Amino acid sequence: MRYCIKVFGCQMNTVDGDRLRTVLQEKGWTETEDEPAEMVLMVTCSIREKAEQKVFSELGRYGSRWRATGRPVVAVVGCMAQRVGAELLNRFPWVRLVAGPRSLGQIPGVIDSLLDSPSPFLLLDEDPVSVFDLETPGIVRSNRWRGFVTIAHGCDNFCTYCIVPYVRGRFQSRPARAIVEDVDALVRDGARDITLLGQNVNSYGTDFPEGPAFPDLLRKVAEIPGLSRLRFVTSHPKDFTRAIVEAMVENPVICPSVNLPIQSGSNRILKKMNRGYTVEEYAEKIGWIREVFPEAGLTSDLIVGFPGETEKDFVESLAVVERFKYDLVHTAAYSRRPPSGAATMEGQIPEDEKSRRLNAVNALQRNIALSINRDLEGSVVEVLFDGQAPKGDGLIAGRTSTDKVVLARGTAEDFGQILRVRIERGDAWSLHGVVEKPDRDREGGASRG
Ligand code: SAH
Ligand code: SF4
Ligand code: F3S
């Protein structure tokens, strides 16, 4: 049997997709393209209305082949499955399974019967506390050298714009032992760069009476033999502590790379968003990082056009982008996501105004990233190469420990190695360089490793 998998949304979905792949592979299914597949598996996202529209239009496309041949059957899993629920079955009769992110563990039990079962499967979780998890690491993964491991489910923060707490349920840390086992399995399978995932990794362990807390989890994972690079996302600024920076300083395996989403530069809007910090508190935390890692990679998320955002609030958002000099900012126009609190707030901003603000902040950030990357011209960085560059013959791509994308001339033999690269050109999204030949007379390739 052949399946095709389509993953939308965040890295948590990437892991869920890889874990489902791993299970299907073990059951003897083969991954293929859209067209010959007997089953299409969609791992979906609800974060913005657009993310859902994409899935709806994709779903419509399978109708004609299904009417003619009874194939493919479609399984919709993930956040949008949880939010939209049974309506998916009614609108698209070729959808035979709808499963929320906390029901992943039930999928292996039903997946083989999807093709002939007379009735569809609806695996939604009414109880936001329960998690029926798929206890398998995502061994069958898209990138051989990189792996992702979820360390906590759900989120309890209820930022007023956000749907995640409604679809992913209550915050729940995974036991440290299970996390270490997953990372270990991925590293033994060849992954050198591991990212720990959670909606708010900093609150890891706060639901355990005896810990470990997040900095200690980092230390524990960093000790795993064979692991070269350890990363983590997402850090919620309100829970980001100095102890995390200390663990990073102690452990060179932990990458000097932090995603600290600010969301807005206006304290008034941050309060309406229920974010739990002010710009000043946020700045202090950035200071802790920059103090010890002046070259740290720093990224952020920012929403424009939140209800009630005035021109003054927006100018304050531009000011924080200018001030913190991020390497990358994930920007988005606010999207109404009922039942999240902001969906019914007064002062919803018209779409064209949101677009104007989005374009303005993107243009500003582009120039900042360009200037940061140009300053790196002439420097030498260590890059873990992990694949062909999306375009450009003979170019391979990899990342620095600060999470910058680097392109250089090379071959598949360079994949999975950390090589020194002299940067020749920086543009807004990537660095272009030349791999330095290891000095074999000295230490037999000392610069690899
Ligand atoms: N847990 C992470 C982010 C999860 S969602 C955090 O706390 O930062 C990823 C990003 O999507 C968010 O950082 C936010 O910038 C964006 N986002 C979430 N809900 C949104 C909405 N309703 N409209 C626009 N962007 C949104
Ligand atoms: Fe959403 Fe806020 Fe939770 Fe992040 S912390 S997932 S933005 S509710
Ligand atoms: Fe989307 Fe769910 Fe992630 S809504 S961003 S896939 S947690």
Put the structure in a nutshell.
The chain contains 15 helices and 19 strands. By secondary structure, it is of the alpha/beta class. Helix 13 packs parallel to helix 14.
Keywords:
449 residues, binds S-adenosyl-L-homocysteine, binds FE3-S4 cluster, binds iron/sulfur cluster, alpha/beta, OB fold (Dihydrolipoamide Acetyltransferase, E2P), six-stranded parallel β-sheet
Structure description:
The protein is α/β, with parallel strands linked by helices and 449 residues long. Among the domains are: 2-123, 3-Layer(aba) Sandwich (Rossmann fold), CATH 3.40.50; 380-439, Beta Barrel (OB fold (Dihydrolipoamide Acetyltransferase, E2P)). 33% of the residues lie in helices and 22% in strands. The protein contains 15 helices and 19 strands. The protein has a six-stranded parallel sheet with strand order 2-1-3-4-5-6, with helices on both faces. Strands 15-16-17-19-18 form a five-stranded mixed beta barrel. A three-stranded parallel sheet has the order 7-10-11, sandwiched between helices. Helix 1 (11-26) links the parallel strand 1 and strand 2 (30-31). It is globular. 44% of the residues are buried. It binds S-adenosyl-L-homocysteine, iron/sulfur cluster and FE3-S4 cluster. Iron/sulfur cluster (SF4) is lined by residues 155, 157-159, 162, 164-165, 199-200, 236.
